[in-house]
């Protein structure tokens, strides 16, 4: 029997990392020792105290039944306490916080609650692709706000056409950014909140990398530090990167009560909550002293500095990011600004995986992204190989 995929899936370009995985496995089959600077999955283990908390919680039969749809009160309270401590904002765990099975789950489900077929949403290009796909899944259309180096990879709201601003129901943004590593400023968030109130647009901010930063004086912000944000915004948080918990699938959304309730309504119909034992361990992580995160930040900082050196050695212009664990760099000379050609060259001639910028949207053309999730020795080896391959090409 032949099965026809639904249009929403058929029209979708292949998920960026699926294509990269295929190239990696082809190279490995040929015996190449592939070094992947591609996908950003933390290489460090989850801190032991969190693993122990899960192990203890899993032994308690009370965690074995269906969790509550909105998430356990213990986890939501811990998330609220974290937001108060870290950002100085007050979120009511009853109505303004909901547990997610990883922030991706929430980002993917949220547009279903507020986007009707034919509605318009604004997403950034380059940007984390899930926001755009989620809008399309809900039947909505996407206007891509092109980000540029000269605007520090922040959208220029004044350049969004009036008809787009009038029609758009939501805007999705991610800071600290995957892929560019840019962070949002207080001025930008103030401008964004005023714009959203004026144009009656929902703001979705993705804060998955909020705790991976390099300068205590320039910690990433929450949109809720901006007055008025609770009128129009929902923010997505994750334990994945903060505590090396990508496989655990746990995060939360915080924000405007109606927006949280809308997301909750979708979730009651598609999932049955996050495993209670994971929520219990997650609450313990969020209430911890964050020493493990400080240690992690120091590790990424050393890698970031080494990567900046390595990128220089292959002629890729970049600036050190203030947050997140990605470095966004310009394709070196000699590749016609073609990021896909450069990424193919790296894997084929050097056995090194980098992510082509255009995989994050047209605005990423001419750039590539590397992840700081490999150790320094491997990273240095990767840059040496690429440098040698480039030299051999000349
Ligand atoms: N947001 C961004 C920008 C990401 O890069 C990721 C994961 O890579 C996520 C959200 C999803 O994270 P999780 O679902 O693990 O919380």
Question: What are the bound molecules?
Answer: pyridoxal-5'-phosphate
**Can you tell me the CATH architecture of the largest domain?**
3-Layer(aba) Sandwich
Order of helices and strands: HHEHHEHEHEHEHEEEHHHEHEEEH
How much is the radius of gyration in Å? 21 Å
How many individual domains? 2
CATH topology assignment of the largest domain: Aspartate Aminotransferase, domain 2
Oligomer: single chain
Q: What is this structure, in a nutshell?
A:
Helix content is 41%, strand content 14%. The protein is α/β, with parallel strands linked by helices.
Task: Report on the architecture of this protein.
By secondary structure, the chain is α/β, with parallel strands linked by helices. The chain is 41% helix and 14% strand. The chain is built from 13 helices and 12 strands. It has helices at residues 7-10, 16-29, 48-58, 73-87, 103-114, 129-137, 162-167, 186-199, 257-270, 276-286, 291-313, 339-350, 376-393, and strands at residues 35-36, 97-100, 120-125, 141-146, 168-174, 202-206, 233-238, 251-255, 326-330, 352-353, 355-356, 367-371. Strand 5 (168-174), helix 8 (186-199) and strand 6 (202-206) form a beta-alpha-beta unit. The protein is globular, with a radius of gyration of 21 Å. The model has no long low-confidence stretch (mean pLDDT 96). Bound molecules: pyridoxal-5'-phosphate. Pyridoxal-5'-phosphate (PLP) is lined by residues 40, 102-104, 128, 174, 178, 206, 208, 238, 240, 246, 251.
């Amino acid at each position: 029997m032949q099965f026809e995929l639904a249009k929403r899936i058929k029209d979708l370009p292949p998920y960026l990392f699926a294509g990269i995985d295929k190239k990696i496995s082809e190279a490995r089959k040929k015996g190449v020792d592939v070094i992947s600077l591609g996908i950003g999955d933390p290489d460090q283990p989850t801190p032991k105290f969190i693993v122990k908390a899960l192990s203890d919680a899993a032994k308690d039969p009370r965690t074995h039944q269906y969790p509550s749809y909105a998430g356990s009160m213990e986890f939501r309270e811990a998330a609220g306490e974290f937001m108060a401590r870290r950002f100085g904002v007050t979120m009511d765990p009853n109505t303004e916080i909901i547990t997610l099975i990883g922030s991706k789950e929430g980002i993917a489900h949220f547009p279903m609650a507020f986007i009707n077929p034919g509605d318009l949403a604004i997403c950034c290009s380059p940007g984390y692709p899930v926001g755009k796909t989620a809008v399309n899944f809900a039947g909505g259309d996407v206007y891509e706000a092109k980000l540029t180096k000269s605007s520090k990879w922040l959208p220029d709201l004044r350049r969004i056409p009036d008809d787009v601003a009038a029609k758009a129901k939501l805007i999705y943004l991610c800071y600290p950014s995957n892929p560019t590593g840019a962070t949002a400023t207080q001025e930008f968030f103030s401008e964004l909140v005023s714009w959203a109130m004026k144009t009656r647009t929902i703001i979705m901010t993705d804060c998955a990398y909020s705790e991976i930063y390099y300068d205590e004086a320039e910690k990433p912000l929450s949109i809720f530090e901006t007055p008025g944000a609770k009128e129009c915004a929902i923010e997505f948080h994750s334990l994945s990167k903060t505590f090396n918990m990508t496989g655990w699938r746990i995060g939360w959304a915080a924000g405007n009560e109606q927006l949280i309730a809308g997301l909750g309504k979708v979730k009651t119909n598609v999932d049955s909550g996050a495993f209670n034992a994971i929520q219990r361990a997650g609450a313990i992580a969020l209430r911890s002293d964050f020493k493990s995160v400080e240690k992690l930040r120091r590790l990424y900082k050393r890698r970031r500095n080494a990567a900046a050196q390595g990128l220089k050695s292959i002629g890729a212009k970049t600036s050190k990011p203030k947050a997140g664990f990605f470095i966004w760099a310009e394709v070196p000379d000699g590749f016609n600004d073609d990021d896909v050609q450069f990424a193919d060259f790296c894997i084929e001639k050097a056995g090194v995986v980098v992510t082509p910028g255009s995989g994050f949207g047209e605005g990423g053309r001419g750039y590539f992204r590397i992840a700081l999730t490999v150790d320094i020795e491997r990273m240095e080896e990767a840059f040496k190989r690429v440098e040698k391959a480039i030299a051999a090409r000349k």
